[in-house]
Design goal:
Elements: E1 8-12, H1 17-26, E2 32-37, E3 47-50, H2 56-70, E4 75-78, H3 93-121, E5 124-130, H4 141-161, E6 167-173, H5 179-187, H6 200-208, H7 217-228, E7 239-242, H8 251-255, H9 257-260, H10 271-284
Helix pairs in contact: 1-7, 2-3, 3-4, 5-10
C-alpha cells in the first residue's frame, strides 16, 4: 500500500485498542504518524499529542500540531470514543454530555479544523462507528445515539467535501477484542464467546455473528488502512460493516434472547456497571473515559 508512504496520518484514541492497532498496522506502509491520546506515555510514534477530546480547546491544537510537525495533513482517523453503559432512565447529564462530546462533537470539530488541510492534499477522513448505531438495544442509549449521529455525519461530510476530492467513510464495527468490549461482556454475563458447545452463549454468538467469534483489532485496522489509502479512491460516504455478519441478523432481539433467559445475563446495566467497567479497565491499563460524576 505504497500510497500511504510519507502521508501524514492523524489517529485519535491511539494509546490502546483499535487506535493503537491501527497505528501499528499502518506503520508498515511508512506514513508519518501523529497519534493523539489522553495518555501519550503509552505511545510510540513520530509525533504524539496529549489531548482530552471532550475539551473544545484541545481539538484545534491537535490538528495544528500535526500540520506544524509535518506541514500538511492527509488522513484523519476519528477513533477516540467514550463508552457509557446505561439505559435512558439512569443516564446522568454529565455522563451523557461527555459521551456526546467525545463521540460526535470531537469528530465534528476535528474534521472542521482539518478540512482546509485535507482539501490541499485531497485527503480522507475515516470514522470509527459501531453496530450500536444501527441496532437498538437496552443499556447503551447515549452511546448508540452518538454513533448513529457519527454515521450520518460521515455521509454529510462526504457530500460536502466531494467537490474538493476529499473522501469521508466510516467503519461500523461489531464485537471486537478490545478490553472495553470484553469487560462489558463479562459484566453483563455474555462472554467472551466460549468453545463449550453446551454453553448457550456459543449458539448466541453464532446466531448474532454468522462468521462466529469476534473481530480482532487487526481486522479493523486493515479496513481503516484500506479506506485511508488510494486503493479506496472511488469510495466515499459509506459505512462499511466490519462485524462478522452481525448486521445480517436480528441480533439483540433474537440471538441473545436465549442467553438472557438462562439466568446468566444481567438485564439493563446501569451506571453502577459503568463504574465497575471503568475500574476494571483502569487496573488492566485500558483507557475508558470516565465522566466527571465518577461513572
Amino acid at each position: 500500500m505504497t500510497s500511504l508512504l510519507n502521508k501524514v496520518v492523524l489517529v485519535t484514541g491511539a494509546s490502546t485498542g483499535i487506535g493503537a492497532h491501527t497505528a501499528k498496522f499502518m506503520a508498515k506502509y511508512k506514513p508519518k504518524l501523529v497519534l493523539v491520546a489522553r495518555s501519550p506515555n503509552k505511545l510510540q510514534a513520530v509525533v504524539t499529542i496529549k489531548a482530552d477530546l471532550a475539551k473544545h480547546e484541545d481539538l484545534g491544537r491537535v490538528v495544528s500540531g500535526a500540520v506544524s510537525a509535518f506541514g500538511q495533513l492527509d488522513v484523519l482517523v476519528n477513533n477516540a470514543a467514550a463508552g457509557l453503559i446505561s439505559d435512558v432512565e439512569h443516564t446522568s447529564p454529565d455522563s451523557f454530555d461527555r459521551c456526546m462530546a467525545v463521540n460526535i462533537r470531537a469528530p465534528f470539530f476535528l474534521s472542521q479544523a482539518a478540512m482546509t488541510h485535507l482539501k490541499k492534499t485531497e485527503g480522507s477522513i475515516v470514522n470509527i462507528s459501531s453496530v450500536a448505531a444501527q441496532v437498538a438495544d437496552s443499556g447503551i442509549a447515549a452511546y448508540s445515539i452518538s454513533k448513529a449521529a457519527l454515521e450520518h455525519f460521515t455521509r454529510i461530510m462526504a457530500f460536502e467535501l466531494a467537490p474538493s476530492n476529499v473522501r469521508v467513510n466510516a467503519l461500523t464495527v461489531g464485537f471486537t477484542t478490545t478490553d472495553t468490549q470484553l469487560e462489558f461482556a463479562r459484566l453483563v454475563g455474555l462472554g467472551p464467546p466460549t468453545p463449550d458447545v453446551t454453553d448457550p452463549r456459543k449458539e448466541a454468538t453464532r446466531k448474532g455473528q454468522p462468521l462466529g467469534g469476534v473481530c480482532s483489532m487487526e481486522d479493523i485496522a486493515k479496513v481503516v488502512t484500506f479506506l485511508a489509502s488510494d486503493l479506496a479512491s472511488a469510495i466515499t460516504g459509506t459505512c462499511i460493516p466490519v462485524d462478522r455478519g452481525c448486521l445480517l441478523t436480528a441480533f439483540h432481539q433474537e440471538a441473545f434472547g436465549d442467553v438472557r433467559n438462562t439466568g446468566d445475563y444481567n438485564p439493563v446495566p446501569t451506571e453502577v456497571k459503568m463504574k465497575e467497567l471503568a475500574e476494571a479497565l483502569a487496573k488492566s491499563g485500558g483507557d475508558m473515559p470516565k465522566a466527571k460524576d465518577g461513572n
